[in-house]
Amino acid sequence: MSFRVTQSMLNSNMLFNLSRNNKAMDKLQEQASSGKKINKPSDDPVTAVRGMFYRSSLNEIDQYKRNADDGYSWMTSTDEALDEVTNVLQRVRELTVQGLNGSNSETARQAIASEISQLQEHLGEIANSQMAGKYIFAGTDVKNAPFDTSSKAFLNQNKEKLELQVGQTNNVQINVLGTEVFNNDGNGGAFKVLSDIVADFQSANVSSSDYLSRLDSQIDNILKERAELGARMNRMELSMSHLDGLEVSTTRLLSSEEDVDMALVITNLKTQENVQRAALSIGARIIQPSLVDFLR
Q1: 3-state SS class at 173
Q2: How many domains is the chain partitioned into structurally?
Q3: Displacement of CA 254 from its chain's centroid (Å)
Q4: By C-alpha distance, which of 87, 95, 93 is closest to 115?
Q5: Potential cystine with 146: which of 92, 156, 248, 266 (Cβ 3.0-4.6 Å)?
Q6: Please, are residues 55 and 79 in contact by the beta-carbon 8 Å criterion?
Q7: What's this model's pTM, rounded to 2 decimal places?
């Protein structure tokens, strides 16, 4: 059984094919102008889901990088403060050696005591070091000054760790506990040692000679804390390097899913344009001429 092909059927098929060709051109033009394979989820749901996953991963990586930068800055400030503490204690040790010299006059000892007292106040300033308005030696109690300037004592007892997440399962401690730096013996720590030295040198006679060993103990403790901090800083640097590499690889995966091959899109667009011209040319021959065509 055969079907009769009418002029209206030819016209309808031609218009249908032209419409399909126009849709293909519209999609290619949209890809060329946006640079993306898909511009809405319905274009390719599977690719859209994978793209959303990669974007979510990039957002997480970006947050981890910000955490790592903040944490590294905190640890750098802490290391600089500990370096200054070491310099202060080294200077106090030099002055103590001078003060323990039996040939010193009372005036000389008073001068040494005065300088050590000034260094003690400076040590208190270091203990109250801040970063972005937060005290770095106060544990998690970052809003309250750990060192009391009136009593010249380190009063903070907070021993909580400050940790930042720099990976899905990677948390790094960024703080050094002030109690371990300035009150490691539980009896006033470095401030108590300096107070005892000042009080003794201000008296008529020096009554104790164990100050050097006490100072050496404090200096050794600072070096230990700095070594532990340095190890955590190295770990943070490795985490930052890992995050940089992870960001590059995830961005590459996202690009491979969403970005178009521009050369291929342009080639396909030119092909569709040629198809459209050919279709229009042939369609003009298919359409049956009317009386108007003969009256021109």
Answers
A1: strand
A2: 1
A3: 21
A4: 95
A5: 156
A6: no
A7: 0.77
